[in-house]
Amino acid sequence: MSAPSGCGKSTIIRSIMDRGNVDMKFSVSATNRSPRPGEVNGKNYHFITTEEFRNAIDNDEFVEFEEVYPGRFYGTLKREIIDRCENGEIVVLDIDVKGGVRVKEMFGDDALSIYIMPPSVEELRRRLEGRGTETPEAIDERVNKAEFELSFAPKYDMRVVNDDLDKAVTETEKAILDFIGK
Ligand code: 5GP
C-alpha cells in the first residue's frame, strides 16, 4: 500500500488488522530516520543507523530500499516477507511509490498494490498540520512531494480515496478479501 504522507494509509492498515477479518502481518521496514513520539523500535520500524543501513544493503538483506527523503532511507527486509510468503501468509507493506511499483513488478499476480488517495492536496496539508508531529518545513516538503507521488497512482492495481475513513477501510478490506479469495 502506498499513499502520499498524511493520507491515512497507516490508519487504514491498522484498522483492517483490528477488524480481524484479514489475517495479515505488517512487514516492519528498516529506516535510518529517528522515531516519532510514540513509535516503537521493532514495531513501527527497525530504527537503525545510517551505517547499519549501509551494511544491510551490502549484505543483500533488502528486497528493495529507497532514499524516500534526502538522506532518509527505508527498506523492506527479506527476513520480514520471504519466509512468510512461502508459508502462504499475507504480508502488508507500507511503502513509498517507487518501492511499491518495484515490489508489484517483482511479485506480479502474487501481490495486490493499493494506492490511498487524499480527497485533495489542500486537505492533505490540513491533515498533516493536524497531526502535529512535523515541523512546518517538513510539512511543506511532504506536500510538495505529494503531487509527484500522486502521478504514480495509475500504476497501482486499485485506488481508494480516503474521504471517509470507515468507507476507505471497508473498501480496502474488501479488495484484500477478494484478492485472497475469501
Ligand atoms: P514515514 O517516515 O512517514 O514513516 O514514511 C515515509 C515514507 O516511507 C512513506 O511513504 C512510507 O510508505 C515509506 N516507506 C516505509 N517503509 C518503506 C520501505 O520499506 N520501502 C520503501 N520504499 N518505502 C518505505
Give a description of the structure.
The protein has 182 residues and is of the alpha/beta class. It has helices at residues 9-19, 50-58, 78-86, 97-107, 121-131, 136-150, 165-180, and strands at 24-26, 30-31, 46-47, 62-69, 72-77, 90-92, 114-117, 158-161. The strands form three sheets. A four-stranded mixed β-sheet has the order 3-2-5-4, with helices on both faces. The two termini are 20 Å apart. The model has no long low-confidence stretch (mean pLDDT 94). It binds guanosine-5'-monophosphate. Residues 5, 29, 33, 64, 66, 68, 74-76, 94-96, 99 line the site of guanosine-5'-monophosphate. The site of guanosine-5'-monophosphate has 13 residues, from strand 4 and strand 5.
List strands and helices in order, with pairings:
Layout: H1 9-19, E1 24-26, E2 30-31, E3 46-47, H2 50-58, E4 62-69, E5 72-77, H3 78-86, E6 90-92, H4 97-107, E7 114-117, H5 121-131, H6 136-150, E8 158-161, H7 165-180
Parallel strand pairs: 1-6, 2-3, 7-8
Antiparallel strand pairs: 2-5, 4-5
Residues 5, 29, 33, 64, 66, 68, 74-76, 94-96, 99 line the site of guanosine-5'-monophosphate.
Q: What kind of sheet is the major sheet?
A: 4 strands, mixed
Bound compounds, each kind once, are: guanosine-5'-monophosphate
**What oligomeric state best describes the polypeptide chains here?**
single chain
The geometry reads as globular
Order of helices and strands: HEEEHEEHEHEHHEH
Strand content: 15-25%
Radius of gyration: 16 Å
- Arithmetic mean pLDDT: 94
